[in-house]
User: Fold this.
Amino acid sequence: MAESTNMRLRLPLICIILEVILIILFGVLVEYNDDTDAKKWNKNNSTDPATNEFYYRYPSFQDVHVMIFVGFGFLMTFLQRYGFSSMGFNFLIAAFSLQWATLMQGFFHGMHHGKIHVGVTSMINADFCTGAVLISFGAVLGKTSPVQLLVMAVLEVTLFAVNEYILLSILGANDAGGSMTIHTFGAYFGLMVTRILHRPNLDKSKHKNSSVYHSDLFAMIGTIFLWMFWPSFNSAITQYGDPQHRTAANTYYSLAACTLATFGFSSLVNPEGKLDMVHIQNAALAGGVAVGTAGEMMLTPFGSMIVGFLAGTISVLGYKYLTPFMESKLKIQDTCGIHNLHGMPGILGAIVGAVTAALASRDVYGNGLDNVFLEAAETSHWSAHTKGGFQAISLAVTLGIALLGGLITGFFLKLPIYGTPPDTQCFEDAVYWEVPGEEEDHHELNEVSTRNELEKLNS
Amino acid sequence: MAESTNMRLRLPLICIILEVILIILFGVLVEYNDDTDAKKWNKNNSTDPATNEFYYRYPSFQDVHVMIFVGFGFLMTFLQRYGFSSMGFNFLIAAFSLQWATLMQGFFHGMHHGKIHVGVTSMINADFCTGAVLISFGAVLGKTSPVQLLVMAVLEVTLFAVNEYILLSILGANDAGGSMTIHTFGAYFGLMVTRILHRPNLDKSKHKNSSVYHSDLFAMIGTIFLWMFWPSFNSAITQYGDPQHRTAANTYYSLAACTLATFGFSSLVNPEGKLDMVHIQNAALAGGVAVGTAGEMMLTPFGSMIVGFLAGTISVLGYKYLTPFMESKLKIQDTCGIHNLHGMPGILGAIVGAVTAALASRDVYGNGLDNVFLEAAETSHWSAHTKGGFQAISLAVTLGIALLGGLITGFFLKLPIYGTPPDTQCFEDAVYWEVPGEEEDHHELNEVSTRNELEKLNS
Amino acid sequence: MAESTNMRLRLPLICIILEVILIILFGVLVEYNDDTDAKKWNKNNSTDPATNEFYYRYPSFQDVHVMIFVGFGFLMTFLQRYGFSSMGFNFLIAAFSLQWATLMQGFFHGMHHGKIHVGVTSMINADFCTGAVLISFGAVLGKTSPVQLLVMAVLEVTLFAVNEYILLSILGANDAGGSMTIHTFGAYFGLMVTRILHRPNLDKSKHKNSSVYHSDLFAMIGTIFLWMFWPSFNSAITQYGDPQHRTAANTYYSLAACTLATFGFSSLVNPEGKLDMVHIQNAALAGGVAVGTAGEMMLTPFGSMIVGFLAGTISVLGYKYLTPFMESKLKIQDTCGIHNLHGMPGILGAIVGAVTAALASRDVYGNGLDNVFLEAAETSHWSAHTKGGFQAISLAVTLGIALLGGLITGFFLKLPIYGTPPDTQCFEDAVYWEVPGEEEDHHELNEVSTRNELEKLNS
Assistant:
C-alpha cells in the first residue's frame, strides 16, 4: 500500500516549526553588522556613505538572488506537468535555506561576542549556500515531497557550512564563485541522495519525465538568467576593485566560449544533426561553473575561454553518454543531469583553480597578489605551489563530505514519514497542488472542430 | 442593450489627448535637477561624479521598474484568457501614470522657482505612485475598459499625491517603502472602486475568472520578480548608507519568513493538504508590504521575520475566508485579492511602523537617529512617542482619503461612456485585442487523432 | 531538389572552428585593461577601489546583457513554432558575436602596444555590436539556418566595427545609445540581406508565420525587459556623472510617451478599434531607439517625450501600411518588422541627434559641454553647427555601409551550402531541433471528450 501523500498536517507542521525555531535563534543570535546598524555605522558622523559595503555588493546580490529564484526555479520547469512544483518547491526550500544558512555560516565563520553579524555579504553567502541545496534538488526533482526537501535542506545547509569552514578557514582555499563549495558539493551530495532513494520502478512515470514545447520555453527563462548573471555570481564576494572586475570579465568570456561548444557538440552527437534543448538549457552554463574558483585569478580571457569550451564539451557528452550509463548501471536517477552541469564542471573548476593558483607569482599579479591570495600578504614565504596543493586537497575534502553527507541524508530521507509520491505519480504536480483545468476556449474550439468532422463523416 | 466596446475613437482620443497635455505641462513646468543638468552639475569643475545621486539610486530604480512592469504585469496574467490585457493595460496605465505622477508629486513636493525638478529620485517616486494605481487595477481586473483605467489613473495619481503630501510634508511621517502611501492607499482605493462598480451578474463570466496551467506559470514570473526585488523597493528612497542597507536586509528576512508561513497555511486550509497557486503567487509577497514603513528602522532581522510570518498568515487566511465573504456579503469583487496582499498587510505595516517608531531611541540608533527620523536632527525635544502617534494618524488619513477617493472615482467610472465589457465578456482579451488562434500543428494533431478515432469506430 | 537541412557536420564544424580561431586570437591579442589587471590596478597601493570603472558601469552592463539575451531572445518567440530557434539562435549568434566584436572593436578603437584591452566598457561595446546583429536576425527570422546566421554575424560584426570607427574616430560623432551605429546599421543591413534572400514562394509557410496566444505572452517578456532597461542601454557608455543620469531620464520619458502613442494609434488603425500585439510588442520600444543619439544631450524631458511620441506613431503606421507594401512591392520580407522598430526610429534618432547637437551652446551646457562633446574641450573654436553637420554625415555613411554590406553579405548567404530550410519549412523549429510532443494529459483529455462526443452521436 502506498504511503499517503496528503500534506495537510506534515507540511504546515514542518514549515511553522522550522520558522519558529529560526525566529527564536535569530532573536538570540543575530544582529546587524557595522555597515547595517544605525548606531555602529554613524559612530563617526563623518563616515562617507559611499564606503558602505552596500554600494559595492548590492547590485551583485540582486543578480545572485535572481539566479537562485528565477534561474534555478524556471530551469527546472522543463518537465511537462511539474512546473508548479519546480517553481514552488524551489521557492520554499530557498526561502528556508537562506535563513538557516545565515545561522550556520554565521556560526562557523566567526561569531562577534556571541553574535552573528548580518549585512549584504552574509545575504550573498546565504544565497550561495541555498544554491547548493537547489543543485541537489535537481537530482531528486519530481520524486520527493516538499517535507522531504525541507529535511534535506536542514541537513545539507549544515554540512555545507562545515565544508565551507574547513575549506575557507582551515585550508585557506580560494573559491569565490564556489566551484567546490557550491557546485561540486551540491552535485555529489544530490547524486548520493538520489542513489540512496533509487526507485527501480520509476519508468511507471516515464511518460511524464520529459518536456513539452512550452515547458521548454519556460525553462529557457531560467537558463538565460543564470547565464547572464553568472559574472555577478562569481564576482559577488571577491575583493573590491580589480578582482571583482576581472572575475566578471573571465566568467563572461568563459560562458560565451562554452555556448559555442554546446551548440557544436549538441548537433554533432545527434544522428540528424538536430539540437537538443536539454543541452542548450544546461551545458551552456557549465562555463560559469568551471571558472568559479579561478575566475578571480589572472586566468586571462584566453584561459577562461579554453576552460569554458572544455566545460561545455564535457557537459554535452555527459548528457549524451554518461547520464544513461549512470542511470542503468549505477542506479543514479539524476532528473536534471546535475552531474553534467555542476558535478564534472565543478571538478574541472577546482582543478583549474588549483593549477592557476600554483602558477601565481608577484611578477604577474604585482601588489594585487595580496588582494587575491589574502594569506600572501601575511607571510613573506608564501608559496604558490603549496597554495595549489591546498586547493587540490580542498576538492578532495569537498567530495568526501558531499558523498558521506549525501549518504547519511539519503538514508534519513528513506523513512516512510514524508509522504513521497508513489512511482506512478512522480513528476506530477497534482499530487501536492491544486491544478487548474486546461483552457476553456480551447476545448470549445476542439469540440467544434470535432463536431464538424463528425457531421461531415456521418452525412 | 449593452454599450459598444469598440475603442476605435475613445482609446486613441484619450491616449493622444492625455499625452499632448503631458507634453505641454512638461514643457512648461519640468527641468533637470542639479544632478541631471549639464550646467548645474558642472558648476564646479571639481565635482566628483561618484557623488551623483545616480550611482546611489539607479540600480534600485531599475529593480523597482522591473517590479512595476514585469512584476505587476505578469502577476496578473494568471487569468486564462486575459494575459494580453493584464500585460498590456498594466503597461499602458503605468506608462501614463509615471508621467502624470512626476507632475503631481513635483507640484506637491516643492516647486523650485516654479519648476519641477526631475532625476532618478523623482523617477523612483513616480514608479511608486504608479504601483498604487496598479494595485487598484488588480481589484477591477477583467471588468474594465482601458479608457476607464486611464481615467481611474488620472484621478488616483492626483489623490495619491495629495495623501503623500499630507503624510510626508505635513505629518512628517516615515513611509519609505509605502506600506501606507502605496499599499494601503492603492488597496482601499481599488476596493472602493470595485464596490461601486459591483456587477450582480458577474457569474456569467465565471468560467473565465480562473487560471489554466500555463497562465499560472506566467503569473509566477511576476511573483518571483516582485519577491526578489522588494528589498530594493523598500530601500530605494531611504537615506544613503546604513538606512538603505538595513532596509534591504529587513525586507529580505521578512519575505523569507513570510514564504514559509504561506506554504504552511496554504496546505493547512486545504482539505487534502494541497497547495494553492493563488496563495503562493500572492501571500508570499505580503512580507514585503508589511515592512514598508518600519524597514528602515532598527526593526532587527528578528522583528522583520515575525512581521513577515504574520503577514503571510493573515494573507492566506484572507484569501481563504475573507475574500468569499467580501464578495458575497459586501459586494466587493476583488479579482486579484488585493485586500489580502496589499490591504491587510499594508495596515499591519503601518501599525508596525508606528510601534517601531514609538520605541526609537538615541540609545539604539546613536547618531543614526537623525538619519532615519529627519525631524529629530532639527529639534532637541523630539519624542518617539509623539512620532509614533503621527504615524498612526497617517494610517487613518490614508484610509480616509483612499476610501473617499475610491468612492468618487467609482461613481465617475460608472458613466456609460467608457465601453466597459458586458457581464458575459469579462476576463476576456478578445473584447479589446486581436487574439490569434491556437497552435496550427496542434489542431492538425487533434484532427488526425479525431479522424483515427472516427475511422476505428465507423469501420 | 531541396538542399539537405541536416546540420550534423556543418554546425559543429563552424562552431568549433570559429571558437578555436577566437581562442587563438584572444591568446595573441587580448589582455586585461588597467582596471581589470591585478598588477596594473595595484601599481599604486593607495588606489581607491571605488574609482574602478566596474562600479560605474557594471550595473548598466548587466541591464544591457539582459536586453541582448532575454530582450531580443524572447521578443522573437512570438512565432508559434519557432520559439526554440528564436531563443536558441539568438543565444548562439550573440555568444559568438560578443567575442568577435571584442576583437574587431578592439582592433579599430586603438590597440595598446599591439594589444586589445578588455574590461567592462569593452564588454558593453561588444554587447552593443551584438545588438546590431540581432536586429538583422529579426529580418531573416525563420528563413535561415544557424550556419547562415553565424556567417552573417562574422561579416556584420566586421562591418559594424568599420562603420563605428568611421563615425566615432574619424567623424567624431556622438552616438552613445547607437541610433546610428546599432539601430540604423542593423536594420538596413538586415533589410538588404532579406531582400537578396527573397523567397517568392514563402507563402507556403504562411500558416506558421504568425503567433499563438501563449507565444505572444512569451514575446512580451522580451518587450518589457527591453523597455525597462533601455535607459541603461542608452546611458551605459556615456561619461560619468550628469550625462549618464540625464540619458537615463530622457530615455525613460521618451519611452513612456511612445507607449501612449503606440496604444492610441494601434487602436486607431484597426476597424474595430482592437489593439494589435505586434504593435505593442514592438512600436512601444521605438522611443528608446529614437533618443539613442540625443539622449546624453540637453534634450529635456519635454523634447524626449515629443521624440518618443513621434517614434511610436511612425512605428505603428509602418507596421500597418509600410510593411505590407515593402513585402509585396519591394520584395523585402521583414519577419519582425525591424524597419518599423529600428530602421525608421533609428533615422529619426540620428536626425534628432544632429539637430540637438547643432543647437548646443555653452549657455545651456555650461562646463558640461566638454563632457558631452569631447572635442569642444580641445579646441576654442568648436562650432555646434559644424558638429550637427558631422552628425548628419554620419547617418549617411551608416546607411551607405549598411546597405552595401548587406548586399554583399546577402549574396554570400545565397550560396547553397548552409542548409537553409525549404519554403515549406520556414518558421518551423523541427527543422533544426529535437521538438517534444504536446502535453500528455492534454491529449488524454481531448481523446476522452472526443470519445464522449462520438458515443453520443453514434448512439
Summary: Residues 440-459 of chain A have pLDDT under 50 and may be disordered. The two ends of chain A are 51 Å apart (CA to CA).
